[in-house]
Amino acid sequence: MNCAVHPETQATGYCRNCGKALCAPCTRDVRGILYCESCLADMLARPQPAAGGGSPGLAAALGFIPGAGAAYNGEYTKAVIHLAIFVAFVGALNSDLGDPLEPMLGVSLAAFIFYMALDSYRTARAKLLGQPPPAPLGNIRTDVPIGPIILIALGVFFLLSKFLHLGHLVREFWPVIFIALGVLLLWKRMGRTS
Fold first, then answer.
1. CA-CA distances (angstroms) from residue 6 to 10, 25, 36, 136?
2. How far apart are alpha carbons 127 and 149 in whole angstroms?
3. Are 35 and 16 contacting, i.e. CB atoms less than 8 angstroms apart?
4. Looking at the structure, do residues 88 and 103 belong to the same domain, yes or no?
């Protein structure tokens, strides 16, 4: 039998993956196993699973339990942070904050629970594919001090609500916050694609 690449040359072996007949210059020997160049290139280009990578489905299911999904992925610091945020939400909901804030906190807690499950799934999937774990907040710019800005805004809001009785205003118009946030995110996404 002749080589599949060089028909004028006698074949000396066969590709273990595709079975093509190969001459000596066409064979790629990997620990005594012969491959053709295209099969070897395909195998090298394919992402290899990381050793000990977990199941993304199980990670997502455990992600609904505060901290469990991150702990399953080996991210123990993130697990503690998720648990602390969950406890803060539950503590805030159990204190008597008043009618306007309780629905916002309830929706925020539900969104945070789904975020934990999604983050656990994405991290487990990236580890399984041998990729670095995704950023916790996606593609949000890291040069903007988001955390301090949020804390300052919350502090100003709570301080103003103490002195100006903003309860009625917040109770009536808190869905506007979600609409404005959605419009802002949509505007940024549309700006990136055009």
1. 8, 10, 13, 52
2. 32
3. yes
4. yes
Strand partners, 21: 14
Phi and psi dihedrals of 141, rounded to 5? -60, 135
Contacts by 180-183, CB closer than 8 A, 24 or more apart: none
Same domain membership, residue 34 and residue 69:
no
Tell the residue number behind the tokens 């590709």, with chain if given. Answer: 15
Together in a domain, 68 and 117: yes
Rounded to two decimals, the pTM is 0.49
Domain count, the chain: 3
**pLDDT tens digit string along 24-67?**
888 888 877 888 888 888 877 776 554 456 788 899 999 999 98
Residues 6+ apart with CB under 8 A from 131: 47
Residues 129 and 62 in one domain: yes
